Amino acid sequence: MFRQVRGDIYTYLNLKTGHPIQLYLKDAGTFMSLVGKHNSTEQGYYQVTEKYQMRRGVKSLVSGTYTIYVLSALSPPYFRNTVAHELAHDLGHELYPAVQKQEDVEGFAEYVSAIMNSYWGNDNLNQEKLENREKDYAYAYKKFLKIGRKNGLGGVLDYMEKQNRTAGAK
Ligand SMILES: [Zn+2]
Fold it and tell me: How many domains does the chain have?
């Protein structure tokens, strides 16, 4: 199902990375001790470790480890939603590395996973995004809905591109 979600994001949104991603399912206790300090509402966690080298002033990637942890025993719709959200973090990391602002990082992931939820016929999960107890997430999602109101995903990608340029120029 993980591979299917990744494939659907590519097929439907034409977004992908070539990262080999390891997926781990963790029971609630292990999941909380693993990511609890980072996050209180997500049922998944994206972790990346990359090694770079500098040669003649050029920075290049030597190796990378990409991991997604997902809470075990989620129903298929919640699993897909969570995986789509975490895969959006992987996309964001690759395509817009300079974007670090929490609101943009999470808003982008919520927006992408929401489009996919609609694609899979799970619009009810998007209503839950709006009512997220974690107000920062609800706010970030609403912000991205607004950005995407005119041109949909295209408008959102333009926004991320622009944020990446601005942040990268600093
Ligand atoms: Zn997230």
Answer: 1
Ligand 1 center from residue 146 Cα (angstroms)? 19
Residue-range definition of the domain harbouring residue 138? 2-169
Q: What's the 101 CA to ligand 1 centre distance in angstroms?
A: 12
42 near 82, Cβ under 8 Å? yes
Residues 6+ positions from 138 with CB-CB distance below 8 Å? 129, 130, 131, 132
pTM (global) more than 0.70: yes
Backbone angles phi, psi at 113, to 5 degrees: -65, -30
Q: How far is the CA of 162 from the centre of ligand 1 (A)?
A: 20
Q: List CB-based neighbours of ion ligand 1 within 5 Å.
A: 106, 109
| Per-residue model confidence as pLDDT tens digits over 3-35 | 999 999 999 999 999 999 999 999 999 999 988
